[in-house]
Amino acid sequence: MRITIILETEDRALSLPIHYNHIIQGFIYDNISKKLAKFLHQKGYIYGKRAFKLFTFSRLYGRFRLNKGTNTIYFAPLSIFI
């Protein structure tokens, strides 16, 4: 299964640090049920000695502007695949 999320702002671009993966992961965990989030984050599905957390996400897509001085990236609009 794949979910596409498209985000647009009304007046300005969304600013994120260049290394934004932990923010996206937190966003996903905050927007699924608390029970599922706790299970996936702390345990996952066990197969033998391995644990599978079972969600992945893409990098952010869209028009962007990079500010190297502050290590910030500005998106407007953006999309992500989960």
Write structural notes for this entry.
- With 82 residues, the protein is an alpha+beta fold.
- Helix content is 23%, strand content 38%.
- It has helices spanning 21-30, 34-42, and strands at residues 4-7, 14-17, 45-47, 50-52, 61-67, 72-81.
- The strands form 2 sheets. Strands 1, 2, 5 and 6 form a 4-stranded antiparallel beta sheet that branches. Strands 3-4 form a two-stranded antiparallel ribbon.
- The chain is elongated, with a radius of gyration of 15 Å.
Summarize the structure.
The protein is of the alpha+beta class and about 80 residues long.
- Portion of residues within helices: 10-25%
How many individual helices? 2
| Number of DSSP E strands | 6
Mean pLDDT: 91
The main sheet comes to: 4 strands, antiparallel
Radius of gyration: 15 Å
Helix/strand class: alpha+beta
Q: What layout of secondary structure does this protein have?
A:
Layout lengths: L3 E4 L6 E4 L3 H10 L3 H9 L2 E3 L2 E3 L8 E7 L4 E10 L1
Antiparallel strand pairs: 1-6, 2-6, 3-4, 5-6
Characteristic terms for this protein:
alpha+beta, two-stranded antiparallel ribbon, four-stranded antiparallel sheet, 6 strands
